[in-house]
Design goal:
Elements: H1 12-39, H2 42-64
Length: 82
């Protein structure tokens, strides 16, 4: 029985391309959902809505895995931005 590959070697550029593709797909699904709302087709709206939720969830999980820069504390004073 085959197993899943749990080790990926993706560059930052690869991740950026994936996010861009997901955002593009999300925009197209949103436009399709609006068109379906006007035509009032509830079954298709539910399918598109569930796919939109899946794409948004995946984008959120990708975002949560990023590590954003935050300067180290200087002495005892906490870092205050701005």
């Amino acid at each position: 029985m085959p197993k899943y590959n749990r080790n990926f070697t993706l560059s930052l550029h690869d991740i950026d391309q994936i996010e861009t593709a997901l955002r593009t797909q999300k925009n197209k699904l949103s436009e399709r959902r609006l068109a379906l709302l006007k035509s009032q087709e509830p079954e298709e709206i539910n399918d598109v809505q569930s796919e939109l939720v899946n794409v948004a969830d995946l984008l959120g999980r990708l975002h949560d895995q990023k590590i954003f820069y935050r300067p180290k504390m200087v002495g005892e004073a906490p870092y205050v931005s701005g």
